[in-house]
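Job type: complex structure
Entries:
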Amino acid sequence: MKKEFNIIANLLKKNSKVLDVGCGDGELMKYINEKITNDVRGLEISKNNVQKCIEKGLTVIEGNAEKDLKQFPDLSFDYVILSQTLQAFLDPENVINELLRIGKKAIVTIPNFGYWKVRIHLLFQGTMPVTKSLPNEWYDTPNLHMCTIKDFVNFCNKKNIKINSSNLNIKNLFSELGIFLIEK
Amino acid sequence: MNNIEKVKRLIIEKPLKLDCGQTISNFPLAYETYGVLNEKKDNAILAFHALTGDQFASGKNPITNKEGWWSYALGPGKAIDTNKYFVICANVIGGCMGSYGPSNINPETNRPFGTNFPVITINDMVNAQYHLLEFFKIEKLFSVVGGSMGGMQVLQFVSNFPNKSVTAIPIACTASHSAQNIALNELGRQSIMADHNWSNGFYEENKKLPDKGLAVARMAAHITYLSKKGLQEKFGRKLQERDDLKFSFDADFQIESYLRYQGSVFVDRFDANSYLYITRAMDYFDLLKQFNGNLSKAFEKSKTKFFVISFTSDWLYPTSENREIVIALNAIGKDVGFAEITSDKGHDSFLLDIPDFLNAVKNFLNTSYNKINEKRI
């Protein structure tokens, strides 16, 4: 986790304004708060996680990313972060559009379904892969729209979304996680 | 209410122009304080009470001998920790716990004002309480906090005095009183006015008070503070000290007996005319209209850090109305947090022992307070 935080934090400019969509228990926000900028806030759907964020002294808004992003004005954040939740939305395309509307840049991370361990699992075991970043069984997973790093790159190309930076140096096969800095 | 003369009062000499057009001056504002104001004067919190509250938020209310209305949330070691913070709470003008209200004597007639008292608004209440900052020589409050009508005062306070509080916690409230809320308040007012003893508001001379009307108003209002589920779980169809229905209009059911009791104890501590005036102030509250339909404008000049709280089962000031405040603040990039607390206890939740609620308030206050002190170092 810390490695992902570090990569994300390095993509952010000092003292920038950041929104973490689906901020969970606030660990990433806390990390960013301590290292990069104190102008960071989160949107989180789970009441339990909202309480954890408040405990950490973080600004959090309880809400649903698929409904509640529209309240933020255009380009009101320097960066909008979506960490490993894209695949759980009903309409991920709409969420990406919203991220790019309210943020000058967006940082999207996805659990890579093209990771070699995932491929091997499906190939040899013949069952839905369960890994560190995909810990759930097929019947209880919140993930609706799994994709690979390559899928996401293709999606961005198709929709004219610019990929500024990514960890693609480790490529589709070898990264468990895809991290993208994108903008319109 | 014989000890009422003993409550702390600030006499506000400066003229205050009310929204209704009248100007009042040299009027009393009753208040109470909790905790100690520190040397830096950076630990002061102004707590606003709701419709039937008063300045006795915590500890024993010396007038009613009951626990203060916010004893679960406010006091030594509580969410609003008076070992750490200095909390001021004032009785709103229009009230009946020592502040300027309809039961005060009108110097022109030497009789109680009754319905000759000017109609007041949430804005007037807040403007009157602002004088407490000057009185205690507090340059900037650490927080303004309140639930229900108290939350409306929080919103109005920040709007009127954009940089006089570091943080603000509006709880279970709205920026604009809804038709449903006006309707429910009107029901209460009409039940008071339908009591023959009300005498157009000049009942103090008759020595007969409109207790029945006020009790019915309280009973009706009390239902709106609870939730269907909460009522069902607490009372269901349980009978009151009897084995079977009596085929009469006695209080057969526990819920009836409970409401009658709530009505009967309320009249001992509350003035009927104050009930009319304060409910009117709530109905007139429309911060949207004050800013031509754009709520964001109310907070444009403010740097106050907001934390908005609602409750799942509150149908009087539902989450959607609290969320409107959050949306207005986000629309202009203000620092705002929001939490909806799970509770079956309805609107009354903000007065009760709901751990998630109390923890959220405590954590928000304490982490915010630590942050302002870190900055200084």
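Summary: The domain at 2-113+146-183 of chain A is CATH 3.40.50.150 (Rossmann fold). The mean pLDDT of chain A is 92.
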